[in-house]
Design goal:
171 residues; alpha+beta; Pnp Oxidase, Chain A; eight-stranded antiparallel β-sheet; 8 strands; elongated
Length: 171
């Protein structure tokens, strides 16, 4: 077995751009309060790359919202549907009730969680601002992955399926 991993270059800027590109459509991420024993939970994103903010609908009566009162640092973990990007991001969150964003992002899926509609007293938003993390980007596709795995088995070297970068977001 080879002891050296393939050296794929991925710049921080490329990794950050890929992260935002993958979140441009609503995506599901795992989100939780960092450094607590609380579990992360699936949340739907409403991302705004121009301001480097990710918005989430939630209820004010959840364990997560109660925990944010003590610790506003969250961890966001994401894997794209096509497996072309994975990310582990740390950032801070603010609890807000932004009527403009509620109106903009309201849809039947969101409405299902709020029996009283947009006026539900428990409806609130989380505004997540990412600060730093790790992003893995694969450039594979199925054909490239099969080729890289076959090549790795023949050459006894690890497959080259993409790159990774530590990232810092600029606010």
């Amino acid at each position: 077995m080879a002891s050296k991993e393939p050296q794929t270059q991925l710049s921080e800027a490329e990794a950050v751009r890929a992260f935002w590109d993958h979140l441009k459509d609503r995506s599901t991420v795992m989100l939780g309060v960092n450094a607590t024993d609380q579990h992360t939970q699936p949340m739907t994103t409403f991302s705004e790359p121009s301001t480097e903010e990710i918005w989430f609908f939630t209820r004010s009566d959840t364990d997560m919202v109660r925990e944010i009162a003590n610790n506003n640092e969250l961890r966001l973990v994401y894997a794209s549907k096509d497996q072309d990007l994975q990310a582990d991001i740390i950032g801070t969150v603010e609890i807000k009730r932004d009527q403009g964003r509620i109106d903009r992002y309201w849809n039947p899926m969101v409405a299902a969680w709020y029996p009283e509609g947009k006026d539900d007293p428990h409806l609130t938003l989380l505004c997540f601002t990412p600060h730093k993390g790790q992003v893995w980007v694969s450039k594979q596709g199925l054909v490239r992955l099969i080729f890289q795995v076959a090549k790795a088995n023949i050459t006894k070297t690890p497959p080259d399926v993409g790159g990774t970068a530590e990232v810092r977001f600029t606010h």
